[in-house]
Write a structure and sequence with these properties.
- There is one protein chain.
- By secondary structure, this protein is an alpha+beta fold.
- Among the domains are: 95-283, Acid-sensing ion channels like fold (Sandwich); 316-395, no CATH class.
- 43% of the residues lie in helices and 23% in strands.
- The protein has 12 helices and 13 strands.
- GO terms for molecular function: sodium channel activity.
């Protein structure tokens, strides 16, 4: 699945919810179709019921229903369009650095790259200059079209301790050291960039994706620099890294303690790596949860429809009794009705049967009960399952 679609659907929970809803909906539709063809009383219930409202009320009701239905379709279509076409939303977070960048080092012909030392932090470099990791073996020769005197460090390792300090050592060529030649200043170019395959290090100014800025420094003498790193986490699941380099100043002490041979390296470039990075995270403009929330908010408007035209009759039995567990719920209903009859008979046996006034009053109440029942059945309570269960002994 496309990672953008995966994020838009709220990842695994959203996909599971869609699958479960579709499965449940298909089952309900199949059961409904089968039972409609199986039982005539259900067809009468859904297609041949009488309407107690006047013609003007029914016309207005139909018009408002169509308007609300059109609005619902419009809301769903608009939100689906936003999910598909709107640009992503951005969130900014601060995260821990995880891996070193790729580093390309190029220098003029009168100076050569000599060594790379790595410290867990700049403080470690200041306090314990000889306690370092030699990364010289990880820097390989790199041939560029514009400059062949380059060395490349393509980092794919993960740092246990984010941040750190890189110390790059360079030395003059022997010809200039012994003869005291005064030529042009030695130039050192350092490029810091992402490690993904979209980087093009062969260009005079290396570049990558539009989110992968390359940090660049140009030095002619020793100095300390600090680079900042930013992440752009795209919806396609790729993390693009951008870099910028700023100058901090020069070394305030002799670097002889770093190297036992002071003549081995004459120029030092220090790079302070950040511990934390600023991450710009892309999020879908509208997710599945947002769409359901918006649709649910619109459906609340349908309360106006019930306010204007009333609601349907209550159905105390529901879809399961009507379509699935028909025999089981029918048996339970008859059992409850028999229980009610027995309770009523026991109460009547305790009454004085010889009193004529009571008999007349009972008949009157019985007639009122029948009228009330008919009224409730016609306007308020869905009695379809009750009638079907009482009148039909078998399914």
């Amino acid at each position: 699945m496309d990672y953008k679609l995966y994020e838009t659907l709220n990842r695994l929970p959203g996909i599971f919810a869609i699958a479960a809803t579709m499965f449940f909906g298909i089952i309900i539709i199949v059961i409904f179709i089968v039972r409609i063809f199986q039982f005539p009383h259900l067809r009468q219930k859904y297609w041949q019921h009488d309407n107690t409202q006047s013609i003007p009320t029914r016309i207005l009701k139909t018009i408002i229903f169509l308007l609300l239905a059109a609005g619902l379709i419009g809301v769903i279509s608009y939100n689906v369009y936003k999910m598909k076409n709107d640009p992503p939303k951005f969130l900014v977070a601060v995260e821990r650095s995880k891996e070193p960048p790729s580093i390309l080092i190029c220098q003029s012909d009168d100076i050569t790259f000599n060594t790379v030392r790595y410290y867990n932090s700049f403080n470690s470099f200041v306090n314990y200059p000889k306690q370092n990791f030699d990364l010289s073996g990880d820097f390989k020769l790199f041939q560029r079209e514009s400059d062949g005197n380059c060395t490349f460090f393509n980092s794919t390792m993960t740092m246990d301790n984010p941040g750190g300090f890189y110390l790059l050592g360079f030395r003059k060529v022997l010809l200039e050291l012994f003869n005291g030649m005064s030529g042009s200043a030695s130039i050192i170019s350092v490029y810091i960039g992402d490690t993904n395959n979209e980087m093009n290090w062969n260009l005079p100014m290396p570049q990558g994706n539009k989110f992968s800025d390359v940090g660049f420094l140009l030095a002619s003498s020793s100095g300390i620099f600090q680079y900042t790193e930013t992440w752009h986490k795209a919806l396609n699941g790729i993390n693009y890294r951008g870099f910028q380099i700023t100058s901090i100043g020069n070394f305030l002490f002799d670097l002889v303690s770093v190297d036992d041979n002071p003549m081995q390296s004459s120029t030092w470039i220090g790079l302070i790596a950040p511990t934390n990075v600023i991450a710009q995270v892309e999020n879908p403009s509208l997710t599945l949860a947002d769409l359901l929330s918006n649709v649910g908010g619109y459906l609340s408007i349908w309360a106006i429809f019930g306010f204007l035209f009333g609601v349907k009759k209550a159905n105390p039995f529901g879809f399961v009794s009507d379509f699935i567990f028909i025999n089981q719920d029918k048996a339970k209903l008859r059992k409850e009705l028999d229980k009610m009859k027995n309770d009523r008979s026991s109460k009547l046996s305790n009454l004085e049967k010889g009193e004529e006034d009571n008999a007349i009053e009972t008949n009157s109440l019985s007639n009122q009960s029948i009228e009330l029942r008919n009224l409730l059945a016609k306007y308020y309570v869905d009695m379809d399952f009750y009638e079907h269960a009482v009148k039909t002994p078998d399914v």
